[in-house]
Every structure is written in C-alpha cells, then in structure tokens.
C-alpha cells in the first residue's frame, strides 16, 4: 500500500474516532451546538472515504480507455465532499431551528466539554498533516479533506467559546444560534471547496510561477532551435500537462530536432514534478516571433 493510500485510510480512522468523541460530548451535555458539531463529523468520515476511494483510483496507471491517467478522480471526490458538506449544513440549520423554537437547558458538564476539546485537538493535528502531505504530493482530495478538518476545528472552537457565553448569560436560545452559525461556516466551506474543485475539472492552467519556470527552461535548454510558442498547460491532480510548438531551422535533421526535444523534456522533468510534455516541431517559416526566444 502506498503512503498516500495509508494517509487516506488514516483519515477514515481519525474521522470515526472524532465522530465518536463528539457524539459522546453531545450525549453528556444535550447541547444543540455540540450536536451540530458532531453532525459535521459524519461528513468528515464520508469525505475521508471519498478521498480514500479517489486516491486509490487516481493511482491506477493509464490504460486504453484513460490514456492520460486517472488523476482527475480526485477532483470528482473533492466536489462530492463539497456537496456532502452543504447537505450537512442544511441538517444543522434544521436542528438549530427546532432547538430555537423549543429551547432546552443543556447540561454543560465539564467532562462533555473536555471530550469535545480532545476531538478538536486530534482533528487539528491530522488536518495539518493532511494539508502538508497533500500539497507536497499534489493530491487535491487529501488537501480538500484537510481543509475541511480545519473548518471543523474552527467551528468547534467557536462552539466552545459560545458555550461559555451561554453559561454566563443563561440565554437558552443562544445554543441554537451557535448551531446556526456553525451551519453557515460549514456551508461556506462546502461552497469554496466545490468551486476550487470545479476549476480542476475545467483544465485550469498551471500557476504563473510554473509557467514562468517553463519558459525559462525552454529558453535555456532549447539550444539549436529558433523559438517556442503557443505554450499551454493544464493540471490534473499530480500531473501537469505541457505542450508547445518548437520552431527549428528548416534544414535541421529529425534526429537533431529530436535531441533538442529530449533535452528540454528532461530539464522540465527535473524542475516540474509530474510533468508530461508534448512538443510539436515546426520549420522556420512557422515562426511567430512572439513566443519564447531560445538562448
């Protein structure tokens, strides 16, 4: 089992553990706000399962039906997680409304609040690991899972602060208002995640920094060519697809032109992780005099 799969599987285990702890905190206190916090943890487990499935599927090698690989599976998983987060927010709103109409006095026991705090500490540590690992290995599904956990931690901290206010003021409806605020935070998290994931599905270009690096590499290692133009990039999970036109002298042999392409591809592979390069070689009269000048 690869390290990415082990990390994704670990998210499922952590999610289940945190869900049990938060639901226990709700049972000990009867707080609607803590119930909404526990409800969000159900989404954490579901999103972790989606991320695990996506990471497993994206790791499959390219085949006849998917010649460009399966990397985009992670974006689909991230969109699915976003949808589940939005559904959880709606469920939280319902619980908050019912609690607001028929407020009950929660029993804010210290052990219940301590259990909820422990769950938040576990979530925070795991979220840090997920985001760091996901960014390093360019895994949208793991980054999405980690960012959702960060939102969950912030929500839990807000709930605990709000619980203190309920204890000070004695205002029962404040518990339901806190639950509604949790729902708004969850809803925003889901919307942001879906928007970013859809960008990946729409073949969003590589960052400006990566494109500038590519231009410099082509210029530096394309000795013998005249220019390069029509540079295009798109990202899909860990893979960055790169294609451009390379203009060479009309009398250059195919072997020489091929050697130049190999040199450029090797340089890009050293500096851009997961790069897949396609170069279209053109004769001198195709030069546009507006692309990348080869040094």
Description:
GO terms for molecular function: cadmium ion transmembrane transporter activity; ferrous iron transmembrane transporter activity; zinc efflux antiporter activity. The chain crosses the membrane at residues 7-29, 41-59, 75-93, 113-133, 153-171. It is a multi-pass membrane protein. It is found in: Cell membrane. Belongs to the cation diffusion facilitator (CDF) transporter (TC 2.A.4) family. With 295 residues, the protein is α+β, with helices and mostly antiparallel strands. It has two domains: 3-201, Up-down Bundle (Alpha-lytic protease prodomain-like); 208-293, Cation efflux protein, cytoplasmic domain (Alpha-Beta Plaits), CATH 3.30.70.1350. 68% of the residues lie in helices and 10% in strands. The protein has a four-stranded mixed beta sheet with strand order 3-2-1-4, with helices on one face. Helix 1 (3-29) runs antiparallel to helix 4. The longest helix is centred in the middle third of the chain and has 30 residues, at 140-169. It is elongated. The chain starts with a helix and ends with a strand. The model has no long low-confidence stretch (mean pLDDT 80).
């Amino acid at each position: 089992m690869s390290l990415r799969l082990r990390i994704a599987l670990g998210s499922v285990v952590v999610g289940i553990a945190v869900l049990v702890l938060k639901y226990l905190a709700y049972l000990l206190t009867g707080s609607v706000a803590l119930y909404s916090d526990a409800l969000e943890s159900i989404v954490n487990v579901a999103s972790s399962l989606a991320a695990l499935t996506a990471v497993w599927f994206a790791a499959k090698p390219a085949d006849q039906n998917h010649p460009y690989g399966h990397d985009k599976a992670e974006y689909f998983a991230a969109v699915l997680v976003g949808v589940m987060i939005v559904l959880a927010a709606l469920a939280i709103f319902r619980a908050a409304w019912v609690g607001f109409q028929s407020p009950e006095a929660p029993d804010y026991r210290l052990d219940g609040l301590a259990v909820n705090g422990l769950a938040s500490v576990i979530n925070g540590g795991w979220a840090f690991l997920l985001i760091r690992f996901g960014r390093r290995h360019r895994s949208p599904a793991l980054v999405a899972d980690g960012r959702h956990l960060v939102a969950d931690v912030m929500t839990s901290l807000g709930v605990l602060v709000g619980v203190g206010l309920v204890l000070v003021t004695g205002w029962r409806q404040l518990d339901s208002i806190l639950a509604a605020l949790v729902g708004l935070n969850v809803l925003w998290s889901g919307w942001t995640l879906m928007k970013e994931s859809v960008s990946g599905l729409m073949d969003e270009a590589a960052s400006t920094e990566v494109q500038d690096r590519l231009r410099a590499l082509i210029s530096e290692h394309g000795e013998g060519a005249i220019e390069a133009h029509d540079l295009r990039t798109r990202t899909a999970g860990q893979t960055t697809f790169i294609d451009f036109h390379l203009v060479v002298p009309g009398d250059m042999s195919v072997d020489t032109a091929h050697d130049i392409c190999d040199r450029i591809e090797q340089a890009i592979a050293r500096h851009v992780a997961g790069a897949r390069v396609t170069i279209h070689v053109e004769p001198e009269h195709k030069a546009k005099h507006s692309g990348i000048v080869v040094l």
